[in-house]
């Protein structure tokens, strides 16, 4: 799952963000999110849609420990240009995370267990569906339905800098278990990966607040059954470097936030020596820039218009070339139902283009959602 539960080093803005008050508390979030796109002529598919119902539960157990659970039900389909339709529905993997404050406000240890509750093995006829869902430029809520599970362990720490600023550091390591992704095929052992994060945040004056972070991820190669380090049964992915920044400032009765990130997928290490015959995931780049205005309409309601631009580049042999771009304007409305419950309505449009071997196909889509939140 992409948005259900991330390893802790990517979660909070900087550091040790556990509650300082003792006691117990529960937060539950769930609701349907629909995403659909229509694509012009030129690609293998012309329509793709997905309905996701995420379920997230967060339980605070005293002042030092938080336990989270996240899963989802997803139903996705793609309509091919030849008239065929490919569909897959069911639960996805479940993430259970525990965050323990070893030194409150200073050092947190986290462990995430990914339970293989999703669909590990699917028919090969659904491969076109997964290829479309995994495209970063479309940013689907659920890009995959299952795996063999895994375990991630990490830490996050922060310290004050210059009085009102803070510097944070985090690191994690993920072990991924083997599974059979395609019915009738061999086993896949995904590569383990390590991740490091460095961030800084603080006020700029006048109510403005800045956050900047750098995340570097190093992955091992993926191994298929029967493969070796120099055969086509091995696939290699380059390391990934991500830079993120956000700036928030008061604007009238509301708050304006500007954010952006750039993720570069590098060329695989030893791609022309040890893994010269391996399947290589091409290097690429994803850039996103967005603006959001949070404006209270009443003590209970907050309206948040927003717009995001996103584009993706991929290596097609002669250098990086445009894979596609999307402009996504939208609006969120958060309404406080009571002291313990709130509902968020989400509505976004999307328009852009997808490139394919020199030709461009138009893209038009929407994202609609209703998320309920209950806190005790």
Rg (CA only)? 21 Å
The assembly state of the depicted protein chains is: single chain
Helix and strand composition category: mainly beta
Architecture, CATH level 2? Answer: Beta Barrel
Tell me the helix content: under 10%
Taken from the alpha-carbon principal axes, the silhouette is globular
Query: Uncertain runs with pLDDT below 50, 5 residues or more?
Result: 1-20, 227-232
CA distance, first residue to last residue: 26 Å
Brief characterization of the structure:
By secondary structure, this protein is mainly β. The chain has one helix at residues 127-133, and strands at residues 24-30, 33-39, 45-61, 65-80, 85-91, 94-103, 107-115, 150-161, 165-176, 188-189, 193-205, 208-219, 222-224, 234-236, 240-251, 254-265, 279-280, 284-296, 301-315, 320-336, 341-356, 359-375. It has one domain (25-375): Porin (Beta Barrel), CATH 2.40.160.
Which tags fit this structure?
single chain, 376 residues, mainly beta, Porin, 4-stranded mixed β-sheet, disordered N terminus
Describe this structure in words.
This protein is mostly beta strands and 376 residues long. The protein has a single domain (25-375), classed as Porin, CATH 2.40.160. The chain is 2% helix and 62% strand. The strands form 2 sheets. The protein has an 18-stranded antiparallel sheet that branches. A 4-stranded mixed sheet has the order 10-13-14-17, with no helix packed on it. The protein is globular, with a radius of gyration of 21 Å.
Describe the SSE topology.
Layout: E1 24-30, E2 33-39, E3 45-61, E4 65-80, E5 85-91, E6 94-103, E7 107-115, H1 127-133, E8 150-161, E9 165-176, E10 188-189, E11 193-205, E12 208-219, E13 222-224, E14 234-236, E15 240-251, E16 254-265, E17 279-280, E18 284-296, E19 301-315, E20 320-336, E21 341-356, E22 359-375
Parallel strand pairs: 14-17
Antiparallel strand pairs: 1-3, 1-22, 2-3, 2-22, 3-4, 4-5, 4-6, 6-7, 7-8, 8-9, 9-11, 10-13, 11-12, 12-15, 13-14, 15-16, 16-18, 18-19, 19-20, 20-21, 21-22
């Amino acid at each position: 799952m992409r948005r259900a539960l991330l390893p802790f080093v990517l979660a909070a803005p900087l550091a040790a963000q556990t509650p300082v008050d003792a006691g117990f508390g529960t937060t539950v979030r769930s609701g349907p999110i629909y995403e659909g796109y229509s694509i012009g002529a030129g690609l293998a598919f012309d329509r793709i849609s997905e309905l996701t119902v995420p379920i997230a539960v967060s339980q605070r157990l005293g002042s030092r420990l938080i336990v989270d659970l996240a899963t989802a039900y997803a139903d996705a389909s793609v309509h091919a240009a030849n008239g065929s339709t490919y569909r897959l529905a069911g639960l996805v993997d479940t993430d259970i995370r525990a965050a323990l404050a070893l030194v409150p406000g200073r050092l947190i240890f986290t462990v995430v267990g990914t339970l293989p509750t999703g669909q590990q093995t699917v028919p090969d006829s659904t491969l076109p569906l997964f290829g479309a869902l995994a495209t970063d430029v479309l940013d689907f809520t659920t890009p995959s339905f299952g795996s063999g599970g895994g375990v991630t362990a990490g830490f996050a720490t922060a310290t004050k800098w210059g009085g009102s600023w803070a510097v944070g550091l985090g690191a994690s390591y993920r072990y991924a278990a083997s599974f059979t992704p395609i019915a009738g095929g061999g086993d896949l052992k995904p590569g383990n990966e390590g991740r490091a994060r460095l961030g800084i945040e603080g006020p700029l004056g006048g109510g403005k607040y800045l956050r900047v972070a750098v995340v570097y991820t190093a992955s091992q190669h993926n191994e298929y059954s029967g493969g070796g380090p120099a055969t086509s049964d091995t696939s290699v992915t380059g390391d990934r470097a991500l830079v993120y920044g956000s700036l928030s400032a008061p604007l009238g009765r509301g708050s304006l936030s500007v954010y952006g990130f750039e993720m570069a997928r590098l060329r695989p290490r030893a791609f022309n020596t040890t893994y010269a015959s391996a399947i290589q995931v091409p290097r690429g780049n994803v850039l996103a820039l967005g603006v959001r205005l949070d404006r209270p309409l009443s003590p209970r309601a907050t309206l948040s218009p927003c717009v995001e631009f996103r584009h993706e580049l991929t290596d097609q042999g002669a250098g990086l070339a445009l894979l596609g771009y999307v402009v996504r304007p939208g609006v969120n409305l958060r309404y406080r139902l009571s002291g313990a419950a709130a509902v968020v309505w989400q509505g976004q449009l999307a328009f852009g283009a997808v490139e394919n071997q020199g030709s461009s196909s138009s893209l038009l889509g929407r994202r609609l959602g209703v998320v309920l939140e209950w806190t005790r």
